[in-house]
Amino acid sequence: MSIVTNSIYNNDIINETVEYFLKRKFSTYTEMKFTYAVMNKRNPSDFFAISNYPDEWTSIYKSNDYQYIDPVVITSLNTILPFPWNDNIMINANLKLSKVFSIGKKYEIINGYTFVLHDNLNNLATLSILIDKENEIIIKEDIERDKDKLQMLLILAHDKLTTLYRDINAVTLKNNKKNEELFSKRENDVLYWSSMGKTYKEITLILGIKLTTVKFHMGNAVKKLGVINAKQAIRLSTEMKLIKPA
């Protein structure tokens, strides 16, 4: 699964968290390819996407800033309703032949369905589902049956992304401006020794506490950072320099 980003959404841990959420939700469908994208309507260069479209295609899309000329994006900017798309979208929108569709044909990205969300941060968020020839009937049936669920999935994924970034920014601001500690002393110690490669069992000996206590403090750190597991908590707190030497 590819992550395309050229925006303020550049935290790998948060992006992986949202990616995991989407991947888990789409696992109930048969071979469904999707792209969750966010674009600032005032500054379209601020563009972010999580996608399991072919890696080569996402790389081409990113390097050429195709969000500026993508008929699907242009249509999404002018609607709040989900819509199907194919070559005809260019005719209906009075657009000239788009490079996006022209090049997309090579990767069979010519037919799909897009759900739309306009948020209070002036972002356009979309969830596009690719309808390929091999699974066309099944995917169309799934979309038709689960339109409400898929629209809600877009809302939930976008809320998760924006909330996590808001919380992380708040934590960073709090630490930078007020010099207050995010973690308790024990939480910090557990994170520190974990970041040094120590196992939970080794940490119990170093700190003189029980294994359940180590897991308890790590669980608190995971919750405070809004990540999925201890591995991500260690990585994020290390990147943000939130851990002090024990």
Task: Outline the structure in words.
This protein has 246 residues and is of the alpha+beta class. The chain has 11 helices and 6 strands. The protein has helices at residues 12-26, 55-63, 71-77, 88-92, 99-104, 136-145, 147-178, 185-195, 200-207, 211-225, 230-239; strands at 2-6, 33-40, 47-51, 83-85, 112-118, 123-130. Strands 1-3-2-6-5-4 form a 6-stranded antiparallel β-sheet, sandwiched between helices. Helix 8 crosses helix 11, helix 9 (200-207) packs across helix 10 and helix 10 (211-225) packs across helix 11 (230-239). The protein is elongated.
Separation of the first and last Cα atoms: 37 Å
Q: Give the integer mean of the pLDDT values.
A: 87
Assembly form of the protein: single chain
> What overall geometry do the principal axes of the alpha carbons give?
elongated
Spatial strand arrangement across the major sheet: 1-3-2-6-5-4
Second-tier CATH architecture of the largest domain: 2-Layer Sandwich
What's the story with the biggest beta sheet?
6 strands, antiparallel
CATH topology of the largest domain: Beta-Lactamase
The residue ranges in which pLDDT falls below 50 over 5 or more consecutive positions are: none
Write the H/E string, N to C: EHEEHHEHHEEHHHHHH
Strand content: 5-15%
User: How many structural domains?
Assistant: 2
Helix/strand-derived category reads alpha+beta
